[in-house]
Specification:
Layout (H helix, E strand, L loop, with lengths): L1 E10 L3 H12 L4 E4 L13 E2 L1 H10 L2 H6 L3 E2 L2 E6 L9 E3 L11 E2 L2 H14 L3 E3 L3 E6 L5 E6 L2 E12 L6 H5 L4 E15 L8 E7 L2 E7 L5 E7 L12 H7 L11 H4 L2 E2 L4 E10 L4 E2 L2 E3 L14 H18 L9 H25 L4 H16 L26 H9 L1
Helix pairs in contact: 1-4, 1-8, 2-8, 10-11
EC number: 1.-.-.-
InterPro entries: FAD-bd, FAD/NAD-bd_sf, Geranylgeranyl_reductase
Keywords: Oxidoreductase
Length: 413
């Protein structure tokens, strides 16, 4: 067994873990970043960063990684729906909400993570790929063990950041369990050969029993998403699943029945999963270990704020570690309080988005019609939609009052 030392060990080189490694190494700490993959590959993760997430990336010093990794700015947001003729659909200019950040970014997740890991190395961090059987033992001097093809290794650290995402590998080892709720199912696929879809336009919409999303990327590629009822969770299983997934974008509500999408070809794996929200049963830290990103709890992915949250976590935890020598759990109390406030607002917003756009059938269709009419008359009815674009703390408080959602749907009737 080899034994080594580090100030911080980061377990998981997804967006939050890689960004934290960059910031901490640039700040002068010795950092080891552990990743279970032997190479960064497309595992189908979130690939959309809100303008407030862009601000977080800038503060972390990793914004250039997105540009180098092929990020595209989404300037227009169009919501198509079977209740609205395509020619009457309006677009939203997403660059106006945080002008200094511009519109959201759409990018290949694994490519950006790889570039972040390379930046961490350039700043002095050590990145270990193919790190398997990772075990974390918390304490005032936490210990991390892992295996590589070269054998068993031990790291003795001052702090461990758990950033393994939804698998919550580190969280489970320190006794954190999650209460999960399933909100229907979702799927995602990278495609190439996109037709004449406008390069700076992202789409969201609902028709029949699917909610769909289109996020263009470079060179005629796009990440497609669909949400659908749990009863249809096997609809894309087996041979031809990716092709059926693409074909389901032939929708009446899209211009030319979605031909710009249906001419595309699969360019990566198709992933299908239950859409979950998770809440931890206890504080997501202990002596020597702090959890960040989805490992610390997540909202329904229908809201699309997971990456922005991971970067916020990486920044705020890094500020504690770089701000002084007190790394005891009490030093992270402001981080936990801010995260609880933020996630409470995001859970609230995700419930509204899911009820509006990821619910199906005649009743849901009529609800979208009524809320659409209300929103056209009263901008305040759209307030929680700002959560896709601006930081949760900057969304007006009335959108999170006890009766807002009830009044939104009731008054729309």
């Amino acid at each position: 067994m080899t034994i080594d030392h580090a100030d911080v060990v980061v377990v998981g080189s997804g967006m939050g873990g890689a960004a934290a490694a960059c910031r901490l190494a640039a700040g002068g700490l010795s950092v080891v970043l552990l990743e279970k993959q032997d190479a960064f590959t497309d595992l189908v993760r979130g690939e959309w960063l809100a303008p407030w997430g862009i601000q977080e990336a800038q503060r972390l010093g990793v914004l250039d990684c997105f540009a180098v990794g092929g990020a595209c700015e989404m300037r227009r947001w169009v919501t198509w729906d079977e209740a609205v003729p395509p020619e009457e659909v309006e677009s939203v200019d997403m660059t106006r909400f945080i002008p200094s950040a511009g519109g959201p970014l759409s990018f290949p997740h694994h490519t950006v993570c790889q570039i972040m890991a390379e930046q961490a190395v350039a700043s002095g961090a050590r990145v270990v790929m193919n790190a398997a059987k990772i075990t974390v033992t918390p304490g005032t001097e936490p210990v991390v063990t892992y295996r590589t093809p070269g054998g068993l290794h031990e790291l003795r650290a001052r702090m461990v950041l758990g950033a393994t995402g939804r698998v919550c590998k580190v969280g489970r080892q320190i006794g954190v369990s999650m209460t999960s709720a399933t909100h229907e199912w979702g799927g995602a696929l990278m495609v190439e050969g996109l037709g004449d879809w406008p390069a700076e336009t992202q789409a969201l919409g609902t028709e029949g029993d699917v909610m769909f999303m289109v996020f263009p990327q470079e060179a005629g590629r796009a990440r497609l998403y669909m949400n659908f009822p749990t009863a249809n969770q096997h609809r894309y299983r087996g041979p031809g699943g990716p092709e059926r997934f693409i074909a389901d974008f032939e929708l009446e509500c899209l211009p030319d029945r979605g031909k710009a999408v249906t001419v595309a070809r699969p360019a990566g794996p198709l992933a299908v999963w239950p859409r979950l929200s998770t809440l931890p049963d206890r504080p997501t830290l202990t002596e020597g270990v702090v959890l960040i990103g989805d490992e610390a709890g997540q909202t329904d992915s229908v809201l699309g704020t997971g990456l922005s949250c991971a970067l916020r976590d990486a920044r705020t935890v890094s500020e504690v570690l770089l701000g002084g020598d007190d790394w005891r759990p009490a030093a992270f109390a402001p981080f936990l309080a801010e995260r609880a406030f933020r996630m409470g607002r995001l859970h609230h917003g995700a419930e509204i988005v899911a009820k509006l756009h990821a619910s199906f059938g005649p009743e849901a269709l009529e609800r979208r019609r009524r809320v659409g009419r209300l929103a056209a008359r009263h901008f305040g009815a759209q307030v929680t939609g700002l959560l896709n674009l601006v930081a949760p703390e900057d969304v007006p408080d009335f959108g999170f009052s006890e009766f807002f959602a009830e009044r939104l749907f009731r008054e729309s009737a």
